[in-house]
Structure to design on (659 residues):
């Protein structure tokens, strides 16, 4: 019997569905429906390393689990940051947690953005809405390793000025000479005097070199589709365009089957894909 | 084995119970075919009497009938709606249990597994389904450790299929009817006018060990020929065929074929095919609590790509139409699976055809798409 127990313990230790508990150390309200949480690592962990673009499964005790991109700075691996939009039961429950409460975490999962392949090239990041969250680690990474890259452009679109995420970071980036930060809103309200229009209108205003760049795109699928059309017009090669896909995920580790698009599992093969590899999926409805 | 030069031995019917006794003595819980609700259901067995002696089944699209046979066969049926999947990848399974502990919670190990199990009467198509699940659950970047544990502790007694059903097409899938690998012991049941016996061979070290303790003798030429003939005859009796030539690309190239819509007009999206399929592996993962909030659990339960919820993402489902859901299922089996796991996801057992209330037949639909 002791023998069986050992096996059971080993099963649980290596079981990918087991979560670890992280203490919430800070909560930041980002917009009317979006917030960030910073998590302290458990004592058993020296650091939480991840590639920009990877995600974790976050578990609220007794409520459920959701996949959420890691939105913090990858060079600061003692704090784990996630940015969450309140859309369902679990995200609402996370929002109800307070500093000092514990959250279950497992990960990091999935393939990240091609920051290594982009070395020596310009990088253009196009995002919409909360799509900025999985790309903020890329911006942090590029700025930390700034000398390795050519021009860096961040083109960001939000629905209204109130929906703009990370406004302080954006202001800071706009004040730097080594990153071109362009922001637009679909609908101007209040005293907005910036760009108005969809994010694709910023592509023409940016100065990156389409022939020597890596493009990273994250946002609603329709926004990504139009952005890619713009890129193709500018002769960016399909192999240099990367997109982040989103599908229903239940396990995060390629075992539950929910996140399949064609032959790919978004959780383990994605969420970041080279456009060249999945362009067929983009043209297929209900795949 | 008594004679190293011979691979095939003979086990007389009267000695068959010894096999079950030996496995029991070795600590295996026995599972095999039983009759429940007028169909063959794999369940725990204790003696030969638990087997469906003298029963056979008649299967066609949307139809399954258990009938008395004129022979006293132990394994005279084909396959029922249940596959061994239910024992290795259970329909509902608790992944863990947690107890509230102040601000935190503590996660507990699952209950002890029943441990060693012997499956009696595994068909060749089902062996192939297990080999496919091994790839899905244990050869990716993450391993389903509960599946892996159960799988390692199974002793498999395969029984070569001499009774292919009306919806079977394993011969065309090259997954049967004769068990080729993945078993510990493989039997062929042979009934002649005056004799009822099994030819038996070992497929593993543990199989060889058990075989050496059984009251067998070396098979003679006539017995080996009888077994071979039974298999040949079986392959010819196969009710259906699926032409797999270039099937992966055929379907990829026919994603927009209008025939998908015609299938969807008949398909009830009930998900029966996914439940009876021995390779369908999709699960839902659900977190629950008791009313006091002191206990939380995580459960895995079979899910089906035929539900709208399956592809639900904030705002709506990806596959809203029945067309897209049937296409997802069939293309997963015959196209996507090949790219994901290097094998077709279909083993030709015919269950999806038999248990479809609308008589949708994957072999026919594939053929229509091929010709359209």
């Amino acid at each position: 019997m002791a023998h069986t127990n050992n096996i059971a313990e080993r099963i649980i230790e290596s079981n990918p569905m087991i979560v670890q508990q992280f203490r919430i150390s800070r909560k930041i309200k980002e917009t009317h429906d979006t917030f960030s949480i910073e998590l302290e690592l458990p004592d058993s962990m020296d650091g939480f390393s991840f590639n920009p673009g990877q995600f974790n499964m976050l578990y609220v005790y007794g409520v459920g689990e959701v996949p959420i991109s890691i939105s913090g700075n990858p060079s600061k691996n003692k704090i784990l940051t996630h940015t969450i939009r309140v859309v369902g039961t679990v995200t609402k429950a996370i929002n109800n947690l307070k500093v000092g409460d514990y959250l279950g975490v497992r990960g990091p999962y999935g393939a990240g953005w091609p920051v290594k392949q982009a070395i020596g090239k310009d990088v253009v990041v196009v995002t919409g809405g909360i799509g900025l969250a999985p790309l903020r680690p890329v911006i942090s990474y590029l700025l930390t390793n700034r000398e390795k890259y050519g021009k860096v452009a961040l083109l960001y679109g939000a629905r209204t000025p109130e929906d703009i995420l990370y406004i302080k970071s954006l202001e800071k980036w706009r004040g730097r000479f080594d990153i071109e930060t362009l922001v637009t809103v679909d609908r101007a309200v209040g005293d907005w005097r910036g760009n108005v229009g969809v994010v694709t209108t910023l592509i023409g205003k940016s100065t990156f070199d389409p022939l020597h760049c890596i493009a990273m795109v994250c946002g609603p699928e329709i926004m990504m589709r139009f952005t890619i059309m713009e890129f193709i017009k500018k002769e960016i090669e399909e192999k240099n365009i990367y997109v982040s896909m989103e599908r229903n995920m239940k396990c995060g580790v390629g075992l539950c089957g929910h996140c399949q698009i064609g032959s790919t599992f978004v959780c383990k093969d994605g969420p970041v894909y080279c456009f060249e590899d999945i362009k067929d999926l983009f043209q297929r409805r209900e795949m | 084995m008594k004679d190293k030069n011979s691979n095939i031995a003979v086990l007389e019917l009267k000695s068959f119970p010894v096999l079950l006794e030996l496995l029991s003595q070795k600590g295996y819980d026995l599972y095999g075919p039983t009759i429940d609700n007028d169909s063959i259901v794999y369940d725990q067995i204790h003696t030969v009497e638990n087997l469906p002696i003298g029963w056979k089944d008649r299967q066609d699209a949307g139809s399954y009938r258990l009938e008395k046979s004129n022979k006293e066969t132990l394994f005279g049926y084909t396959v029922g709606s249940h596959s061994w999947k239910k024992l290795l990848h259970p329909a509902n399974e608790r992944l863990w249990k947690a107890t509230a502990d102040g601000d935190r919670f503590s996660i507990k190990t699952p209950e002890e597994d029943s441990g060693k199990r012997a499956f009696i009467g595994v068909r060749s198509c089902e062996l192939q389904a297990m080999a496919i699940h091994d790839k899905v659950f244990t050869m990716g970047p993450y391993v389903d450790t509960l599946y892996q544990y159960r799988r390692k502790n199974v002793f498999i007694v395969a029984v070569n299929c001499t009774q292919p059903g009306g919806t079977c097409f394993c011969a065309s899938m090259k997954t049967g009817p004769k068990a080729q690998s993945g078993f510990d012991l493989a039997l062929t049941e042979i009934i002649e006018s005056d004799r009822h016996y099994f030819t038996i061979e070992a497929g593993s070290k543990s199989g060889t060990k058990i075989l050496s303790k059984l009251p067998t003798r070396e098979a003679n030429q006539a017995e080996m020929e009888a077994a071979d003939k039974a298999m040949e005859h079986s392959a010819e009796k196969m009710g259906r065929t699926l032409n797999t030539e270039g099937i992966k690309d055929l379907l990829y190239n026919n994603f927009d074929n209008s025939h998908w819509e015609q299938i969807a007009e008949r398909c009830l999206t009930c998900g029966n095919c996914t439940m009876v399929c021995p390779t369908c592996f999709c699960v839902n993962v659900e977190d629950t609590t008791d009313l006091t909030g002191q206990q939380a659990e995580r459960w895995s339960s079979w899910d089906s790509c035929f539900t709208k919820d399956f592809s639900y993402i904030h705002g709506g489902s990806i596959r809203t139409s029945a067309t897209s859901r049937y296409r997802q299922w069939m293309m997963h089996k015959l196209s996507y699976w090949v790219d994901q796991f290097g094998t077709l996801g279909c083993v030709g057992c015919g269950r999806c055809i038999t248990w479809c209330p609308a008589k949708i037949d994957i072999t026919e639909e594939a053929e229509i798409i091929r010709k359209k």
